[in-house]
Amino acid sequence: MAQQKSSLKSTIAVSLTNYLDAGAIVAGASGLTLWKNYLDLTELHLGWLNFISANCLGAALGAIIGGFLADKYGRKFIYTYNLLVYMLGVVLVMFSVSFPMLLAGFLVTGISVGIGVPASWTYISESSEINNRGRNICISQMSWGVGPMIILLLGMFFAPDGYLFGWVEQLAAVFLGTGAAVEAVQVFSSRLVFFSLFVVAFIAWNMQRQLEESAEWKASKADEKAKGNSGGMLQSFAVLFTNKVAVKTVCFLAGIYLTWNLVASVMGFFQPHIYETAGGVTNEQANWMNCIQWAIIVGTTFVTSQLIDKVSHRLLYVIGLLFSLSAWFIIVGIGVDGPAGLWSFAILWGIQGGISVQIFYALWGTELFPAKFRAGAQGLMFFIVRGLSAVWGLVFASIYGENGEGFTTAAYCMIALLLVSLVVGASGCPATRGKSLDTITRERYGDDV
Asked: For labelling alongside 50, which of 86, 249, 274, 438 has CA 20 to 30 A away?
C-alpha cells in the first residue's frame, strides 16, 4: 500500500509536465485570433507558430535532446532543470510585441515540453506497480486534459466580451496606458493566460526537483557497469537501430502515433480557430465548446484508468479509434457550419480523447524498450512524430484556407490517417498487461540487451 501511495504521489508530480505541455498548446490556440489581430498575422504566420511550437517542431527538438539526457544522466536530471527553460519561454510570449518574439517564445516553450515528455512517461512507468502501470499513465493523461480545460476557462473568462474582460481592461490600462489600441488590450487576455502557466510551472519545478531517481534507471546503470558495457548513448542507439525487435517496435509505435498525432496536433492548435472561421462562432463560444470537450476527455480518461489494467488493450484501442472516425465522418456528413455538426464532433472527439492512441503510445513506449535506451527511443520517436506534425501543420493551413473553405478536403485526410492508425494498432497490439518491465524486456530482447 505504501508503495502504491508513493507511485501515485510521484505520478501526480510528474504529470504536471503534461498539464504544462497541453496547456502551452491550448494557451496559444485559444488566443490565436487575438494575436493574429494584434500583430496583423496571416494564416501562414499561424502555420509557422504551430510549426515551431509545443505542438510540433519545438517539442520534436526537445524530445530527442531530453531522451538522450534522461538515459545518460537520469530522469531526475530533467526534473531539476527543464521547467526553468519552460518558464523562460512563457515569459517571452507574455511580453511579445512582434512576431519574431512570439515565435521565439513558442519555440523555447516547445523545446522544454519536448525535453520533459520522454522522461515523464518513462519515470511514471518505471515507478509504477505492475497492476497500476496503465492507471498511472492514464492519470498523467488526465492532467493533459485538465490543463487545456483550465486554460480554456481562463481564455473564455478573459476573452473580449468574457466575464472577466473588464478586469483585463483595467490591468491593461495599468501596464499599457489608457490610450492603447483595442487589439493590444484584447491580446492582454492571452498574456494573462500564459502567466498562469508560469505560476504552475514554478510550483511544478519545486515539486519535481524533490523526486527520487528512478530505481529502474539506477539498476540499469549498475548492470552496465558490472558488465563493463558503458558505451553510453551511441552504443545504445546502435543497438536500437540494429536489433530487429527494437526496429520493429519503433516502426509499430511510430505507425500508430504518427498517424493519430497528425490529426490530434492540428486539432490541439487550430480547433478554436476552426470553430471561429469555418463554424462561424465567437472566440468565447469556441473556447466554451473546447472546454466542454476537454471535460469529456478528463471524465472518459478516468473511466479508462479503471479498466486499462484489467481489460484487453486491443479492445480499448479499437473503441477509441472508432469514436475518432465517427467524429470525422459525422462532421463531413453534417457539416461544420452548424451547431449539430460542431457539437457532435466536440462530444465524439472528446470521448476518443479519453481512450486515445496517446495513452497506449505512452504505455507501450515505456514497456517495449529496455531501460538503457527507453527514454532515448521515445525521444527519437517523439522527434519524428512531432517534426512531421510540424510540416503537416503548414500543409493543413494551406489546405484549410484563410476562411475554412478547404475544411472538407482536410477532413478526408484526417479520416485516412485515423484508419491507418486503427489497422496498425489493432493488428500489432502487444501482450504486456500484467507483466513487469523486466519480464517484458527479457521476453522481447533476451538477457543480452
From this structure: 249
Q: Please tell me the distance from the alpha carbon of residue 305 to that of residue 268, in angstroms, as a whole number.
A: 22
Task: At 193, list the grid cell.
Answer: 493566460
Nearest to 144 by CA among 26, 19, 43: 19
Rounded to two decimals, the pTM is 0.81
Q: How far apart are CA 418 and CA 264, in angstroms?
A: 10
Which residue, chain included where needed, has cell 512576431? 99
Give the C-alpha separation, 434 to 226, whole Å: 29
356: left (phi over 0), alpha (psi -120 to 50) or beta: beta
Give how far Cα 290 sits from Cα of 191, 276, 296, 343, Å: 19, 11, 10, 10
Summarize pLDDT for 379-427 with one digit per residue, the tens.
888 888 877 877 787 787 777 776 666 777 888 888 999 999 999 999 9
Give the Cα separation of 328 and 237 in Å (integer).
Answer: 38
Alpha-carbon distance 289 to 343, whole Å?
Answer: 8
Task: Indicate the DSSP class of residue 228.
Answer: T
In the chain, the percentage of residues whose pLDDT exceeds 70 is 91
Name residues whose C-beta falls within 8 Å of residue 159's C-beta, 6 or more positions apart in sequence: 30, 34, 165, 186, 189, 283, 284, 287
Number of neighbouring beta carbons within 10 Å of residue 334: 16
- Which residue shows C-alpha cell 462532421? 331
